[in-house]
Amino acid sequence: xxxxxxxxxxxxxxxxxxxxxxxxLLIVCAYSLLSRGAYGGVGLPRSAESYTxxxxxxxxxxxxxxxxxxxxxxxxxxxxxxxxxxxxxxxxRRKNLYLALVILPFWTSFxxxxxxxxxxxxxxxxxxxxxxxxxxxxxxxxxxxxxxxVILGLVYGYLPFMVLPIYATIERIDRSxxxxxxxxxAKPWTTLTQIVVxxxxxxxxxxxxxxxxxxxxxxxxxxxxxxxxxxxxxxxIQNQFTTARDWPFGSAVSLLLMALVMVLLLLIARRNxxxxx
Amino acid sequence: xxxxxxxxxxxxxxxxxxxxxxxxSLTIQQGEFFSLVxxxxxxxxxxxxxxxxFEEPTDGDVLLKGVSLRxxxxxxxxxxTVFQNYALFPHMTVRENIEFGLRRKTQMRAxxxxxxxxxxxxxxxxxxxESRRPAQLSGGERQRVALARSLVLEPDVLLLDExxxxxxxxxxxxxxxxxxxxxxxxxxxxxxxxxxxxxxLSLSDRIGxxxxxxxxxxxxxxxxxxxxxxxxxxxxxxxxxxxxGVGVRPEATRISYHPPGEGERAVPAVIxxxxxxxxxxxxxxxxxxxxxxxAQVSRLNGSYGCGETVHVWWHPQDEIICPQ
Lengths: 277, 324
Description:
A: mainly alpha, 13 helices, B: alpha+beta, five-stranded antiparallel beta sheet, 8 helices, elongated
């Protein structure tokens, strides 16, 4: 059989996805249905026990907490990201400079940047030292190792994923449509809420998905900035594969997280008829 | 008649010293259909944007009903714009588009608003299509929504920025006549921007011809077409044969085999080509002095063969004389 050239070009990507995405996923599926090995790893017999354990209220509360943290982080990213995207789109010749600044943090490792936050927030960190020396506070503020610090870290890390898609849709809005609103008597705030926000809805939706999903599965930020006091789904999974040495259960939790994310995406895609991803 | 809009030495230049509009003074009367014409880049659209308030003049002033609009934002000016691409709100239905401006008038009652929207829909013959979105409408329908959206506000002046240029040529002629009768019915002053001289001549009460940011001439269609004050105005509004410094329009140029009567201007010429256009003949000739002359003549007077020697002639009163 002769393959058309265009399909042949897709072959490398198809192979890559098969090897690096579908194959590992099948391995995780298989692991989740086996028993834990004595020193980590998995072994026989086959068992569905990992799934029955998921019904423990303890895990339900971890999932709920993770959803709450991800939702709050996404909302804050939107609150900060929308005005920023709007500002950049109105910045004329400085646009590219500001966009470069938004992307700039990606040039260094996320791990290094998260550690930098620890140095800023800890009791002997820059912020507390400064406030103490100015006499504004007497005791160091508990800035690190709590949900606030985790959310701060997530918002900091994922803000660009909110800004960029919103910026892209705002840029596509016809300038004359905004002028028409003003021309018909709308003050700037009305134009913003009635015209600009609705017309950038696809960008807001895309940005929210791009922020919410990685926030939901985040483990590095809650681990470092939450100091182990804040257990989220990401940490739970990580623990199963490391300290707890329960690979089947870790696999089951991973698959449940993935299933929940997919259900969420399907719901959003159904609401958004044009299709968003 | 009262003046509704007055431009006083209106000027706009940009940071790079590029002058878009330069000292434009103009008074437009209540109920008038006024057209600003000129080639692209002549400053007509900038003039309109200065009136709408999208840009601030560097000098001069805009007065609406005698009150200066200086410093007023677009939403505080009682003028409305029909944009070249219509600029309809894509996420709103036809009704929501038309309602948008009325909803900004907070003191207006819902019943009054509903009535005005219904009237506007009827006026532009879009009743029954009020729940469609702009993407589901034809070009002509979108243009009518844009018109209704502005007219429903009863602005002092309606500004139209080449509203027919996005329509296909067949529709354009039909919409043109509808536009004229609509303007007569509503009695609102129209300031119409176009680069199409035929559109301007057929629609307007008066025409202003712009060139390189300046207003070259203002007058009735007959004035500017038949008595242009500059060569630019004469050439912009239609073809002109320039013969020894005087201009003759092709339709005023006659051709005959015999010398014309006493008192006519005549020059011997050779036929270069003759095109049959159905309703008339388009004849290209070359005078013995070497200048090319185009004549649009009735096909009832017979046809002309290439290379034939003829007399090109015209009435002295048809001459266009412009100071150089």
